[in-house]
Amino acid sequence: MPSWLPMRTSHLLRAGRREVVDDLGTGLARARDAGGLLWVELDHPAMSDFAEIAEVFGLHRLAVEDAVSARDRPKLDTYDGTRFLALVTLGYQDATTPLDVGRVMAFAGDAFVVTVRHEDGHTLDRARRRLEQGDVAHVTPLGVLHAVFDTIVEDCSTISSSIEASVLAAADRLFAPPRTDEEHLLYRTTLQLLAMRHAVQPLVEPLRHLSSGVPDGVDVETARRFRDVLDHALVLSSEIADYSELVEQLRGSNDSRIALQQNTDMRKISAWAAIIAVPTAITGFYGMNVPYPGFGDASGVLAAVILQGILALALFVVFRRRGWL
Known about the structure:
Blueprint: E1 8-14, E2 17-20, H1 24-34, E3 37-43, H2 51-57, H3 61-69, E4 75-79, E5 82-91, E6 100-109, E7 112-118, H4 123-132, H5 141-175, H6 183-200, H7 204-211, H8 220-286, H9 298-321
Parallel strand pairs: 3-7
Antiparallel strand pairs: 1-2, 1-3, 4-5, 5-6, 6-7
């Protein structure tokens, strides 16, 4: 965490205004009395940073441990009326660099939200700005969860578009002359898609639950907004599956192309080795210290050279006709 970032910030949102809150208990009482929202943000907290927060908001110990460890897969749990949301955030640099994987957590209860950041990005900042661009006077805990969901799904959609462009470019380079080995890029893309799958697919069930209208406190309009995010998440899941299949096909095509090229190279090497073996055998025969026809005579050398040339040329023609050279 950068040294200039505060470990904890607390704001009271009510009547279209945002106020800094120092005392959490007083701020929560004011939020409940005035129909506002107390939003507490934590950045890479330790267990000790939750002592006061867990007491004031009544947070469950297991949920607090999950928020501090930041190792859970995306999920939505409910503890004594307080919803606990864990999400994975992703950051994209380029096609050859692994995705930056982070995590954000959120507790949503009666007139309060506690968000926890375990990332180097600004997912929660952008979610808050998204809310502030709307009607701040009617910001609710579920509205905050929706903004966080929507921001993360939107980020994943942008990354999906970048991966799609990278995969299509790799396919063009793979099958267009001069062909290049794209194995490294395709392997990195596979890792990126794996991270995308781990971040997006677990979102479907929580979003389906929140958009079903079954949970308490979810009104019709909020359920519709969650359903819109659910649709985007389902599209992303389908895209990830399609891209993963395409990448596997490209990797298989790349391996087949490399194997074919290696087979062609081995044929050429074998053909040239056979051609070179002819003069080697003849010169070895004439190198024996025994008399032979033409021994000690220039005609013998000339005959050997002509024989080597004829045999080598004959082998070259045969290999060339069979496509080995």
